[in-house]
Amino acid sequence: MNLQKKIFIVAEIGNNHEGNFNIAKKLILEAKLCGADAVKFQTFIPEYYVSKSNQETFERLRKFQLTFNQFKKLAIYSKKIGIIFFSTPLDIKSAIFLNKIQKIFKIASGDNNFLPLIEAICKFNKTIFLSTGLANIKEITKVKNLIFNLWKKKIKNSKKLAILHCVSSYPVAESEANLLAIATLKKKFSNCIIGYSDHTRGIVAPIAAVALGAKIIEKHFTLNKNFSNFRDHKISLDPKEMKEMVSKIRKLEFMMGNGKKILQISEKKNIKSMRRSIVAKTNIPKGKSIKFSNLNWIRFEDGLAPGEEKKILNKKTLCNVKVGERIKLNQLK
Length: 333
Fold this sequence. Notes:
By secondary structure, the protein is α/β, with parallel strands linked by helices. 34% of the residues lie in helices and 17% in strands. It has two domains: 8-256, Alpha-Beta Barrel (TIM Barrel); 265-331, Type Iii Antifreeze Protein Isoform Hplc 12 (Alpha-Beta Complex), CATH 3.90.1210. The strands form two sheets. It has an eight-stranded parallel β-sheet. A two-stranded antiparallel ribbon has the order 9-10. α1 (21-34) packs parallel to α3, α1 (21-34) packs parallel to α10 (239-256) and α5 (115-122) packs parallel to α6 (137-151). The relative contact order is 0.11.
């Protein structure tokens, strides 16, 4: 998997299956049909993730929890239909299990300071997506350095670490999306892939993120925004919106080109007709010295170009030159 070849689009299913295995499979299929490159879930053991004292959250997570065997089946199904599967481990035991079935690990924003989990994931020597919500540049740098130090020489390609701009708010207000942080991350962490994990509503932010240089786009995905009162459905794209986002990102990706400022093929045929040439502004009699006031610059093929005035100024004409005619070197002495 080369994350540098094209924009890698992840349909973030998370817990939008709400513990229903068949819904999880349907979400994978719909993501594939929408053109996403990958689907991402969350794998956790509630007791290792949240406090039982927060009874409402604990019970909801218990309800949403899929078994390790179910995740294995989802990974197999994803491979069968041709979409990449991976899941964010929210505890170390889940990470150890996921290492058996996936090639990418996502570290959630809430866990980008959970060093024991990060250290466990680094031992797998696999691609890591690091989400940067709740963290500043100093904290991100600390985690990046930790990952690189743990990898040491085991991973020679530093591009196996992707740093994703993220704002951990649900939904993110437009005034706080801070998309220009993508450019900051690109400059600061030039030896990493930079991406964007989006929590805004709609598709404007992820498309803009691509224009700013994000190579990975992660967007929440649901079958129906009104599936239940679970918060994540509201900030997710439904299949119609996901398909539209993917289509527009692919179009934008194509239009962005390779970044080199070169003459395009279609421009080459327009050079002669669009560039200006030096012509006579007035009638210039034979034997007259050409002055600047005698010159005009119009679109005229194959004449002397602007900037070549010194070749003709103060030289005498060998023939009459009419208004609008090109001034040629062989007309002068």
